[in-house]
Each structure stands twice: as structure tokens, then as C-alpha cells.
Amino acid sequence: MIALWIAAALIVASLLAATWRIVVGPDDTNRTVAADLLFFAVIALIALAGVGSGATGTFDLVLVASLIGFLSAVSLARALTRGRR
């Protein structure tokens, strides 16, 4: 149980760092990467809550949210490069 609290504290620290990078990021690419980190850190907190409570439905939510996050990261990268390969 202590490991869950330590993991949650580290994830919250990454949430704060990502939020700071979104606020003061020098350009759009830094903000995009920070938003991606923020999204996946929230998913990690949801997964930790599911492990702590023993709820099995949480993992379906984490799987779907991860797929959506991956697709949004790809589409944002495509939009930032304006379709160039």
C-alpha cells in the first residue's frame, strides 16, 4: 500500500511539472508534449485508484482512454507539422 502512495506522489509531481510547462512553455510543441504527459498522468492516477480499490472496471476505462490519448497525440503531431512527413 505504501508503494501506491509513493507512486501517486510521483505522478502528482509529474502533473505539476506538466502544468507548469503548459503555462510557461515557449512554443506549441512544448505545450503539446506537456498536455500529452498530463493526460497520461491522469490515466495513471486512475489506474492506481483501480489497483488500490480492487475495481476491475477501472482497467477497461484506462485501456480506452490510453487508445484515445495515443490517437490524439498522433493527430496533434500531424497538425503541428501541417501534414509534412
TrEMBL record:
Keywords: Cell membrane, Membrane, Transmembrane, Transmembrane helix, Transport
Location of this chain's protein in the cell: Cell membrane
Domain of life: Bacteria
Record field: transmembrane: 33-52, 59-80
InterPro entries assigned: MrpF/PhaF-like
Keyword match Metal-binding: no
Membrane topology of the entry: Multi-pass membrane protein
Chief place of localization: membrane
Family per similarity comment: Belongs to the CPA3 antiporters (TC 2.A.63) subunit F family.
Protein name: Multicomponent Na+:H+ antiporter subunit F
Species of provenance: Isoptericola halotolerans
